[in-house]
Amino acid sequence: MAAGNLKIQVLDSADAVAAAASEFVIKAIAAKPKFVLGLATGSTPEKTYAKMAEANKAKKVSFAKVTTFNLDEYWGLDGDHDQSYRYFMNDRLFNHIDIRPWNTNVLNGAAVNPMLECAAYEQKILACGGVDLWLLGIGANGHIAFNEPGSPVDSRTRLVSLTQSTIDANSDGRFFKVAADVPRCALSAGIGTIRESRQIILLATGAGKADAIKAAVDGPFSPDCPASLLQDHPDCTFFIDKEAAAKLS
Questions:
Q1: CA angle, corner 193, sides to 62 and 31, nearest 5?
Q2: Which of the chain's ends, N or C, has fewer CB atoms near its CB within 10 Å?
Q3: How far apart are CA 98 and CA 225, in angstroms?
């Protein structure tokens, strides 16, 4: 179904979301091997990345000519830290596919000058011809990447402060054991940066994302729910399971 420009695919389960999303990405890469792929971290895309790695192992897709850009990284963590997003991506995807390591781009959380790091990231995206497809998750408060509620629609890659709800969501034992361990700032691609991607897919699973999905799809186009700022994107598809879709009109 469609809501405005958004296309919504409601699937039976989180596994079905992962299968559909990975197939979408694989087909896009098959059509354009020199693909520029934007990626997200967090628990939701893990199953999708596992499916992508399986497809690569089965020779159904090659990432040899693909360039990737990740949405975000914790400020203050270097890539060897086991909770950094560089570590996450290496562990969950990059080490299991035939991508060239030098074509994987993750913001440097240990950069001495975060403003220069963010500006250089924007320039590298442009130098690669822009992102062909960005894969996103969504936070319980509607955030995409670390663009928290209130982030401007034209925001660029920058240093941001995390809200308490995001800190709490990342300290439930899956990532950090306690809230005090979670970094308070992150480097994040901006909403404007994300919106420039030629295609966007957003993944959401579980009842805990139902309110955010309702606000993103049925609510107003508003920075109060950053994901709602995708409503007018020309090619954006939400892959969600029945639990995440439960509150849609």
A1: 25
A2: C
A3: 36
Helix (H, G, I), strand (E, B) or coil at 67: strand
pLDDT tens profile 226-247? 999 999 999 999 999 999 999 9
> What residues pair up with 72 in beta bridges, in sequence order?
188
Collapsing DSSP states into helix, strand and coil, what is residue 137? Answer: coil
Positions marked active-site: 72, 141, 143, 148
* Closest to 124 measured CA to CA, from 189, 29, 210: 189
What's the CATH code, domain 2-241? 3.40.50.1360
| 25-51 CB burial, b ≥16 within 10 A, e <16 | bbebbeeeeebbbbbbbbebbebbbeb
Domain residue spans in the chain?
2-241
CA nearest to 204, candidates 156, 236, 172, 177: 236
pTM: predicted TM-score of the whole model, two decimal places: 0.93
CA distance 120 to 228: 27
Classify the phi-psi angles of 76: left when phi > 0, otherwise alpha if psi is within -120 to 50, otherwise beta: left
pLDDT in tens, 15-70: 999 999 999 999 999 999 999 999 999 899 999 999 999 999 999 999 999 999 99
Distance of alpha carbon 130 from the chain centroid: 16
